[in-house]
Amino acid sequence: MLVAIVGRPNVGKSTLFNRLTGRKRAIVDDQPGVTRDRVYGEIEWGGRTIPVVDTGGYVPHSAERFESAIREQVDIALSDADVVLFVTDVTTGITDIDEEMTQRFRRSDTPVLLVANKADNDERRWAANEMYGLGFDEIYPVSASNGIGTGELLDALLEKLPETEETALDERTGIAVIGRPNVGKSSFINALLGFDRSIVTEISGTTRDAVHSQVEYEGRELTLIDTAGLRKKAKVKENIEFYSALRSERAVREADVCILMVDATVGLENQDVRVFRQAEKHKKGMVLAVNKWDLVEKDTKTAKRYEEYFHRILDRQSHVPIVFTSAVTRQRVYKVLDTALEVADERAKRVSTSTLNDMVQAAVEAHHPPTYRGNYVRIKYATQVRADPPVFAFFCNHPDGVKESYRRYLEGKLRKSFGFDGVPLTLVFKQK
Ligand code: GDP
Ligand code: GDP
């Protein structure tokens, strides 16, 4: 499920995005990473959480590529989003680009809501009627600045959305290969599948046009979610990044385990770290695949040095397994997949209550929680309340007294005793 905000520059897309996602106006910053992080958000409305992307974060600076870029963005949004919010500006009225975008929307089945923005007052709401000229049955006059009309817009949006949030794909294990353009995702998938095509039972463009390959591997049913095939779609540089970011957002949601692929000759970039954060947030398993390992000049300590480098950057996700691979020489391509499956198993693992409590008791004795408002904080017992993804509940007298540092301590102990490599753990503290 995804909503895309589309429109020509300056109509108020990012203002609307901030309004709908409840963010304060982002500080305008020319750093590329900052712009991109602003692009994603979530709308909370009617008891639902709706992921939304603002296409305005990706605007080419050079004027001559501008129109083709916008055209392409519209196509990308149409192919990937479930609903498009097409933003126009009542203070300028209908422009040529608005008309052209409308043409493109007509050719697609994706529902599009026409937003007439900057309708800040009655007079401008009235003026918004001009937008009917684009031929939509309905228009939604709003003011992104002061919030007028956004409730009606969100009600209409909810009606257009699919009923249920898509989750991981049924009982098959969903494995997504994610990474920046050119790190070798397609090559990797081809190396994996091309080696023995017979393991592929079906390749389909099921979810929109993401390529899902149904694979049987070592007696297991897998779905490989390929976020690569984008070069065909996007020709403009900014759009390649936009598209790959959009695709990875979606893939993370669909997967059980994300293989984050990076280029060994480049290292980790902001966007990679963001994908890890995304995976963490959605409680997905993670593997770091360092591709193009054949290009790295190596001695006996190289892998170790690389591991240290990645662990330092990933910091709290240093439990994520790292595999050095080469899609070209096929070195360890199966190891990458095997590791992803191990992570999937870890994510589905259950720890018995008695084993867990033995560990917790020892951990608490070794290092007591700090006192809370003069009271001892006692953790009475713990239990794993769910698996896939794992959630642990700790019952205690003062749940509020368990601070982040102690939570991390317990998480570290859990990992030390039970593994869970590559798996985000959720620890909740409850009153007992
Ligand atoms: P984008 O390029 O489409 O993302 O547009 P921005 O969100 O950056 O907004 C462009 C300009 O329009 C900024 O100066 C905003 O303050 C202004 N703006 C956005 N929404 C509204 C609105 O609802 N009313 C008015 N009066 N101005 C708005
Ligand atoms: P994608 O955009 O992530 O799907 O990347 P591609 O699979 O299209 O690869 C981008 C480029 O990197 C292509 O020229 C590949 O041949 C090259 N490449 C991919 N994997 C490797 C690798 O393991 N080693 C080397 N030397 N080149 C690779």
What features would you describe in this structure?
This protein is an alpha/beta fold. It folds into three domains: 158 residues, P-loop containing nucleotide triphosphate hydrolases (Rossmann fold, 3-Layer(aba) Sandwich), CATH 3.40.50.300; 175 residues, 3-Layer(aba) Sandwich (Rossmann fold); 79 residues, GMP Synthetase, Chain A, domain 3 (2-Layer Sandwich). It is 36% helix and 22% strand. The protein is built from 13 helices and 16 strands. It has a seven-stranded mixed β-sheet with strand order 8-9-10-7-11-12-13, sandwiched between helices. α4 links the parallel β4 and β5. The radius of gyration is 24 Å and the shape is globular. It starts with a strand and ends with a strand. The structure holds guanosine-5'-diphosphate (GDP) (2 copies). One guanosine-5'-diphosphate (GDP) binds next to α1.
Indicate the topology.
Blueprint: E1 3-6, H1 13-21, H2 32-37, E2 40-45, E3 48-54, H3 66-80, E4 83-89, H4 96-106, E5 112-117, H5 122-127, E6 139-141, H6 150-160, E7 173-178, H7 185-195, E8 200-204, E9 211-217, E10 220-226, H8 237-254, E11 257-263, H9 270-281, E12 285-291, H10 302-314, E13 322-324, H11 333-348, H12 353-366, E14 379-386, E15 391-396, H13 404-418, E16 426-431
Parallel strand pairs: 1-3, 1-4, 4-5, 5-6, 7-10, 7-11, 11-12, 12-13, 15-16
Antiparallel strand pairs: 2-3, 8-9, 9-10, 14-15
This protein binds guanosine-5'-diphosphate (2 copies).
Compact summary:
The protein contains 13 helices and 16 strands.
**Silhouette:** globular
**What's the level 1 CATH class of the largest domain?**
Alpha Beta
Order of helices and strands: EHHEEHEHEHEHEHEEEHEHEHEHHEEHE
Beta-strand percentage range: 15-25%
Given as residue ranges, the uncertain stretches (5+ residues, pLDDT < 50) are 25-37, 203-209
Mean pLDDT: 85
Reported by name, the CATH topology of the largest domain is Rossmann fold
What percentage of residues falls in helices of 4 or more residues? 25-40%
The number of domains: 3
For the biggest sheet, the summary is: 7 strands, mixed
Function: GTPase that plays an essential role in the late steps of ribosome biogenesis.
Binding site for GTP 1: 7-14, 54-58, 117-120
Family: Belongs to the TRAFAC class TrmE-Era-EngA-EngB-Septin-like GTPase superfamily. EngA (Der) GTPase family.
Subunit structure: Associates with the 50S ribosomal subunit.
